[in-house]
UniProtKB/TrEMBL annotation:
Domain Solute-binding protein family 3/N-terminal positions: 36-257
PANTHER family: ALIPHATIC SULFONATES-BINDING PROTEIN-RELATED (PTHR30024)
Transmembrane segments: none
Stored Pfam families: NMT1 (PF09084)
Homology family: Belongs to the bacterial solute-binding protein SsuA/TauA family.
InterPro entries hit by this protein: Solute-binding_3/MltF_N, SsuA/THI5
Lineage: Bacteria, Bacillati, Bacillota, Clostridia, Peptostreptococcales
Domain of life: Bacteria
The organism of origin for this protein: Maledivibacter halophilus
Annotated Gene3D superfamilies: Periplasmic binding protein-like II (3.40.190.10)
Name the record gives this protein: NitT/TauT family transport system substrate-binding protein
SUPFAM superfamilies assigned: Periplasmic binding protein-like II
Length: 317
């Protein structure tokens, strides 16, 4: 009887050992079979879950190697995408339309959580939106920045041509010109918007106030076709990072953002984070508003349907 019990116990241990080895081999197989992904990001809060996922090893846990490329302007980012140097980017609905108009097939795979503010220089005499007539505003032309600037004006019943738009594509340069009084206003993403505020800038309005969020994650057609499992793994890691951000105090990871995302040191005192949510699709209503804006400026004549430019396969359970 004793020998029989001992045999059963040993059999159970062997079985668990085999299962453990199987799981380890499966993880090794995933690491060996999943192809690397390269994603492009800008210096804004949309990128933070990806930065955390990289630093905390969530990508590795999902068996994927993800390289994060930092860009200072949307033009540089989109050029890298079109030349095949990156697989996907944190971008916006405007870029999705432009890229497809130019015959470069990309699809929205999720929304991102960003925040933008229109800020007046500390040296300007602007205290509210009614004061913007004839004043200069730094933007990035035909991008989410100009779109949001126009939406802010429209919401306050101000003609979009009342302020003088100054094209400054690189975000750090736009911030510097605002701080030095070279422009009266600028539309900036977080965290640089909060940096401007900390140095005396005055908030006139924001995307949060208007509940506007056209920010998205997109991937090329080729990547979607050739790396579907890699994109799914990326989003599983992204969701882990969102869970981390929901429970962790900023003090526990702010140095990571400075060292690995290139955020300025001052964010320790100024950073305001959005309420991150796990990967989900953007709203069709927002896309319709973006498309209407593009048509009003003769930037597109296309009548894309929302579903045509989206691929929901990577985040739906």
């Amino acid at each position: 009887m004793y020998k029989k019990i001992l045999f059963i116990i040993l059999s159970v241990f062997i079985l668990f050992g085999l299962i453990s080895c199987s799981n380890e081999e499966k993880q090794k197989t995933n690491l060996n079979t999943l192809q690397p992904l390269v994603i492009g990001v800008m210096p804004d809060v949309d990128s933070i879950p990806f930065v955390i996922a990289k630093h905390n090893g969530y990508f590795e846990q999902e068996g994927i190697n993800v390289k994060i490329e930092q860009f200072k302007s949307a033009i540089d980012r989109d050029t890298a995408l079109q030349t095949g140097n990156i697989d996907g980017v944190i971008s916006d609905m405007l870029s999705v339309v432009f890229l497809n108009d130019n015959g470069f097939n990309v699809k929205i795979t999720s929304k991102t959580d960003g925040s933008y503010k229109l800020i007046a220089s500390k040296d300007s005499d602007i205290s509210e939106l009614v004061d913007v007539a004839g004043k200069s505003v730094g933007i990035s032309s035909n991008t989410i920045i100009e779109y949001l600037t126009d939406r802010i004006m429209k919401d306050s019943n101000i003609d979009i041509d009342v302020p003088k738009k100054v094209a400054i594509p690189k975000i750090p340069t736009r911030l510097e010109m605002l701080e030095n009084g070279k422009i009266d206003m600028a539309t900036l993403p977080e965290p640089l918007a909060s940096v401007a505020i900390a140095k005396g800038g005055k908030v006139l309005s924001s995307s949060d106030k208007l509940e506007i969020n056209p920010g998205v994650m997109l991937f090329t057609k080729d990547t979607i076709k050739s790396k579907p499992e890699e994109i799914k793994a990326l989003y599983r890691a992204y969701n882990k990072a969102v869970e981390y951000l929901e429970k962790e105090n900023l003090d526990n990871y702010v140095d990571i953002l400075i060292e690995e995302a290139g955020f300025p040191e001052i964010i320790k005192e100024t950073l305001v984070l959005p309420d991150y949510v796990k990967a989900t699709m953007p709203s069709e209503e927002e896309f319709t508003q973006v498309l209407d804006w593009l048509k009003s400026k003769d930037l597109t004549s296309s009548d894309y349907s929302f579903d045509k430019l989206c691929d929901k396969a990577f985040i739906e359970k």
